Amino acid sequence: MLAGWIFDFFRLLELVTLIPTLGMLAFFVNGYVSQNELTPNYILVLFIVSVLAAVWALVTLFRRQSTRESAAFVAFVDICFVGAFIGAVYTLRGIANANCTSVSGGFSSTGGVSSSGSTVTISPLDINYTPFSTRTLAKWIASQELEG
């Protein structure tokens, strides 16, 4: 009985730590999708792994009786998720070059997206995009300000 409570506690703790991660990554994915841009791999990989891990934690929490019977399989899948998170963080290795002391644009209602001319800068990662016109950018910034 105590083992079941400990299992439930750690699954709830796992969900509590994954939900903010999902929210932040969904914010970035939504920013790219609303601009009709492809989401970069380093964000997308971490987002997909986080979604799958949250679903796995929720399913194993609700199906505790059947997971008790296959504890070795549950432990194996949990270890696989640890490896997937390590791989997802490895894809983020480019963030080491980001300058966090001098962020241009900051996080505003546009989500840290600033523009100068026809270049868009996503400030936390210093990513520059110029595939669309200034008119499209102004339209997107106006839609973000209306939502906020």
Please count the helical segments. Answer: 5
Label the structural class. Answer: mainly alpha
Instruction: List the helices and strands in order.
Output: HHHHEEEH
Shape: elongated
First and last CA, distance: 47 Å
Largest sheet: 3 strands, antiparallel
Question: Cα-atom Rg, whole angstroms?
Answer: 19 Å
Task: State which percent range the strand residues make up.
Answer: 5-15%
Strand order of the largest sheet: 1-2-3
Averaged pLDDT: 77
Low-confidence regions: 105-111, 128-132
Question: How would you describe the overall organization of this protein?
Answer:
The chain is mainly α and 148 residues long. 65% of the residues lie in helices and 7% in strands. The protein has five helices and three strands; from the N terminus they run H-H-H-H-E-E-E-H. A three-stranded antiparallel sheet has the order 1-2-3, with no helix packed on it. It is elongated. The protein starts with a helix and ends with a helix. Residues 105-111 and 128-132 have low confidence and may be disordered.
